Amino acid sequence: MKIALTGTPGCGKSTVARELKKIGYKVVKVEELAKKFDCILSKNDEIVVDVDKLAREFSKVNFDGIIEGHLSHLLNPDIAIVLRCNPIILKKRLEKRGWSKSKVLENVEAELIDVILVEALECKKIYEIDTTNRDAKEVAKIIDELIKGEDIDKFKPGKIDWIKEIGDDIDLFLRKNNI
What we know:
Blueprint: E1 2-7, H1 13-22, E2 27-29, H2 30-36, E3 40-42, E4 48-49, H3 51-59, E5 65-68, E6 79-84, H4 87-96, H5 101-112, H6 115-120, E7 125-130, H7 136-147, H8 162-166, H9 170-176
Parallel strand pairs: 1-5, 1-6, 2-5, 6-7
Antiparallel strand pairs: 3-4
Helix pairs in contact: 1-7, 4-5
């Protein structure tokens, strides 16, 4: 079974993937697959992946495990698990990485308006997990349960709504966070 572990950068995919490895899951990064299948378009500051080619090549492979990366939901997985994070916390995480203001803004906006979740809706099964107040071990445990078919209703998509959570203070939120 091909399982995508996806989400906006900074939501915890890599950290959770390490925990999933510890409990026995095979985990591979999208970038590793892209290199293996010769799907890298450029390598300047950022790796650009030919996602269409990678999806075609990867579909020919019998893979049982987790594909980690913010593009993994585009590789026709059997299950997509979208990690989510409150945009205020996400902004702080990305700034700690030293990312440029424009790159931080782009990713905070993407999280705020559910870009990856909407893209992932094409997948056969999809779940979303709010990682804001959960540690990586807890998220890995939830993912393990979802893969085993447990507690699936609790994590069906559509329950996380950052705009609703921020509510009428959206303008204040944007100004306060320099967005």
